[in-house]
Amino acid sequence: MTNVQLDRERAYTWADPRGMAAGAGLDGLTLLRRVADGSLPAPPIAHTMGFDLESVENGRAVFVLTPAEYHYNPIGSVHGGVYATLLDSACGCAVHSTLPAGVRYTSLDLDVKFLGRMTTDTGLVRCEGWVVHAGRSTVLARAELRNEAGKLLGEATSSCLLLR
Q1: 3-state SS of the chain: helix, strand, coil percent to 5?
Q2: Do residues 81 and 7 make contact, with C-beta atoms less than 8 angstroms apart?
């Protein structure tokens, strides 16, 4: 085994996730808009992964990320878990944006397709999620992850269970 020199370091901070409790009485769209504009803290996963909620509207959410070395897997590209996290976040927040105050959701499944390689050379990527179908107890959402040129890098569908 070779002795590998570790010369890179990453430090980051996040707000206490209990700070989200300030949005407990808000409908989903208002809560997410406040996260996007910074008046409510982003969840810790956004800081851990280095992504931002760029925009949100009823039934739609868009996240952005610039791939970094700390996203890499052992084969020298962005780990599939980063794709899945972005796609899951976009699907979930698209669903959340449609919910009235007091209604929550949980993901039932996430079906991810990896369609293109992502590296530090890829530049900014955008992940857009939207609601496809809303029923009384479940909501189906879809998301696409694209580079700035519009190339599809990944896609997902997710079923979410509403908790009333």
Answers
A1: 25, 35, 40
A2: no
List Cα–Cα distances, 129 to 13, 86, 123, 140, in angstroms.
Answer: 26, 9, 20, 11
What CATH number corresponds to the domain at position 93? 3.10.129.10
47 φ, ψ to 5°? -75, -40
Q: What is the per-residue pLDDT across 39-54, written as a single tens digit (0 to 9) for each?
A: 999 999 999 999 999 9
pTM strictly above 0.90:
yes
Residue 16 lies inside a defined structural domain of this protein:
no
Residue 8 lies in a domain: no
3-state secondary structure of 50: coil
Residues 91-102, mean pLDDT to the nearest whole number: 97
Sorted by sequence, the CB contacts under 8 Å of residue 3 that are 6+ apart come out as none
Count of structural domains within the chain: 1
